[in-house]
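User: I'm writing a short report section on ligand binding and want a predicted complex to refer to. Could you take this sequence and manganese (II) ion and write out the structure as tokens? A short remark afterwards would be nice.
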Amino acid sequence: MRAISLDEYKEKRKFSSTPEPGAEQQGAPSGGLEGNPRFVVQKHMASHLHYDFRLEMDGVLKSWAVPKGVPEVAKVRRLAVETEDHPIAYIGFEGIIPEGQYGAGSVEIWDSGEYRLEDRSGKKIVFELEGQRLKGRYALIHTQGKNWIIIKTG
Ligand code: MN
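Assistant: Sure. The structure tokens for the complex follow:
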């Protein structure tokens, strides 16, 4: 995983033209009720529909685009493509990114909640989600380049 940086987030966006939060807007860290870190899944109807899965981690939102959505059924695995870190403030973002801007299209929160980190090594992140829709144990496994696989393990 890359070093923590919001530079790529900033470079891709023109903040005078998009309603998305600026990279300096850090948002409230670890705002979970039990002090657990949070996650969000944002349904992003861009040129291709996908679901952006974001984990509050290392002071940013670690992010993956999941074309077919985060699995809701055990043993299902889906491709998750690593994308640039997003600022914590993005966790509550919903809105319309205008035509011509990066990621143009609508963003809505599909699920949100907290997670408990079980294990994190170079190629694997294991966690339990406690969301409105998504509940249970998941693993993100790095395969190659920006490609990961997200599996609902239980
Ligand atoms: Mn997206």
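A remark for your report: The chain has one domain: 7-23+36-152. The helical segments are 7-12.
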